[in-house]
Amino acid sequence: MRFEVETGEGTSVTDITDEVSGAVPTGRNGTVSVFVPHTTAGVVVNEAEPRLEADIARFAGGMVPDAEWHHDEIDDNARAHLASMVLGRDVTLPVMDGALDIGRYQSVLLVDCDGPRVRNVDVV
What we know:
The protein is an alpha+beta fold. The protein has one domain: YjbQ-like (Jelly Rolls), CATH 2.60.120.460. Helix content is 27%, strand content 38%. It has a 5-stranded antiparallel beta sheet. Strand 5 and strand 6 form a beta hairpin. The protein is elongated and about 50 Å long. The N and C termini lie close together (6 Å). The mean pLDDT is 97. InterPro entries: UPF0047_YjbQ-like (IPR001602), YjbQ-like_sf (IPR035917).
């Protein structure tokens, strides 16, 4: 299943746990993969607490130092590409009886390093 997420300006974090949960087939046991088919966004599992989400956005937006990146000559977003490599574009989650089997404080978070954009998220 694929769904879309509208993201905020710059580097932003969006909780997509409900959408991912809704894509899990009824009664399924095993795993699901959540994949973001973009080169300037990533997906992580962490707590969906507003202050932590702001910290994640700040961390992701600042983890790549300012430099004269070659790709910036094209569209000035090399930092977003490099940050998304560290975040990763996919996570695999356990599923029990058709529900995500994640920890109490765990959520699935889309981290967009080059917003605002409309991002696709695949759940398979």
